[in-house]
Amino acid sequence: MVKVLKLHSFYDNIKNGPGKDQYEPAHFNIVRIEDMLFTLEAPLNYRRRSYYKISLVKGSSTIHYPGHRIVIGEAALVFTNPLMPYDWERNEEKQEGYVCIFTEDFLPGTSLRDLPAFRFAENTVVELQQENFGKFEALIIRMDDELRSDYLYRSELIRSLLTELIFEAQKMVPATVSPQAGSNASERLAVSFMRLLEREMNMDVSYRKPCLLSPADYAGRLAVHVNYLNKVLKEITGQTTTQLINARILSEATVLLKNTKLMVSEIAWALGFSHPNHFSSFIKKQTGLNPKTFRNSK
Description:
This protein is an alpha+beta fold. Helices cover 42% and strands 15% of the residues.
């Protein structure tokens, strides 16, 4: 339904980028932002990618997510994952830094999507001071040096450095929901709910209606009472089960309305609404606009 950009689409916008269309499953590369082609006056276009990116950037820009945006003032680390639709707007022509691009197979055994920096849109941008920027730049330069070397175990060393970068940045991100093995039962339940919600609402999996629609549906699948699930989520995330479900539906609806030519009735069906009028009422309540007006709004 929503186009997912593949690796070759990333390299299509790189000066002197690789010309091949096939890439190894465990792919990793570093690209200088100065070598990337972009325009300042591009229309907003949410897209998912089939790969992860960690960008170390200098220069004013804005990351747009369905429902909100984050402005980068001077320098930041930016984390993006394959499930998170976004668009990146450059506010000024001068941009410097690096992009680490890699597939999930490059870091096997690491639950990247469970880390706050990759899972929650509000945590994907880590603002940096000059001293922090230098620390992360040094790690990326080391990875780039190894990438160009003929060291037999260079991939293993790069994985180690990439993991160090991720978890050094993770120290600077609030631990909204922790998936670690030592977490208590409430935290594990919250993580299970968020995973289930993401799987149900990911419209790129197939053109099908989600089968879990209400808090009771999710509670039943997780084998807990709906009141207990709501209590746990409220304590850990600060939001109720209904609020979390509605926020995720709105995020997906925003992408479908603004990035596809599907009729409102088709989007309503895809998101589990039994009637288009119910979907229209939902969008109106959440945004103050009907679906058609919301689709055409900035």
